[in-house]
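Bug #77: duplicate submission created two jobs. Keeping one. Sequence:
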Amino acid sequence: MDDPFFFVVVGTVVLTAIVLMIGLGAFTRGGEFNRKYGNLLMRLRLLAQFIAVVLIALYVWIHGFGG
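Kept job's structure:
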């Protein structure tokens, strides 16, 4: 827990979850906001998710695969 990189990883995961929730909310409500920003939110979520997965893998690799 003393590693600041851990908080960066957690931050990217939280950011991904936030973008996902906003996108799901827009999708379920529909309307103009979803038509205007739905595709952008999906792309943003994919980018945030990719960065989170890369950082998680890097964190595990740096810290020795849990062993």
